[in-house]
Amino acid sequence: MQWLTHGDPFEVAILDMHMPEMDGLELAKEIRKQRDAKKLPLVLFTSLGRREADAESIGIAAYLNKPLKPSALFDAMIGIFATEGTPRAAPTVSAKPHMDPNMAKRLPLRILLAEDNAVNQKLAIRLLEQMGYRADVAGNGLEAIEAVERQKYDVILMDVQMPELDGLDATREIRKLKAAAQPRIVAMTANAMQGDREMCLAAGMDDYISKPIHIEELVNALQRAKPLAVEVEEYTWRPKQS
Question: Does the predicted model carry a pTM greater than 0.70?
Fold first, then answer.
């Protein structure tokens, strides 16, 4: 409260419900006396996993259960800040020059997005659409495998943490499909732990981008891919030597 009173520019407040001297709900009430929900969204996390009676009137943006999972925190932040397609705190001006609306014409790719979170799906699809791409969507690893068995994809943007079957196991299963054309699989993960990239590559993934997705990272990952038809042509066709 001292920081807020001094005018420190916070973007979000993440409050533990059970704290000494002043619990999370009381702190939220005091914060609302100085800043409204638009200026400072509040996230409340508790080991009880329940919504407090007075929380609705305060305007709690998200509730998280303890122990806190990185993916749950990431999804909460995306839900709060990404309503306009990009995080509110992110500098959108610097991101625009990297977006090429004709990229899909220059580099046609069949893309499968494997992502279970609806908000994350919309964000990724919107970014791809701004480059001219349309993507199919799989809600979990099992659906991703079924999609690859049905048709060819040049690229799979594969979330690592998904229900039913996570991205790592889904990649391992896709790599076992001898009859299916093997796509380039790009890992997407909110974790920033050391060794994550190596773990993804060991599972059979080809590339790695972090979440929230940065436009430049996504563009670079797609540029490293090639349409499967082009790869086959380059491999089988050779001009005759005179």
Answer: no
